[in-house]
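Our consortium's second objective concerns turning raw sequence data into structural hypotheses that experimental partners can test. To show how far this objective has progressed, the report includes one record in full. It was chosen at random from the queue rather than selected for favorable results. The single chain below, 120 residues long, was entered without modification.
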Amino acid sequence: PYSMPEMLARVKALARRLHLAKNRIKVRDLEIELDEHQVKKAGKPLDLTYIQFKLLYLLASQRDNVFSRKEILDRVWGKKVYVTNRTVDVHIKRLREKLGEMHYPSKYIETIHGVGYRFM
């Protein structure tokens, strides 16, 4: 039994938490904040470019989906921009470096040979 104002406050608080959860991805020690356009690893902010952020968010928001290079190009760069498939590979490499992934296998971004990439 709650009063109407208390019930309304509880519903609003729940809605705020759901909105935050929807715009935040947390995987192991990695946090991606869509609204703030920020990525933290082990609580420390990472300095990502706009493209690196979009690329990471795309992969992480649909974990376990494999994205072809063409899909990544279309979704991150847009269909009207001309860049090559190797552009994706270079950005993935730089993103992995910023995530501190210097050794194989990658902890976050997996290469699916002949297909593309996925976030684990």
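The partners drew two points from this record. The chain has one domain: 4-119. The mean pLDDT is 86. Both points have been shared with the crystallography group to help prioritize constructs.
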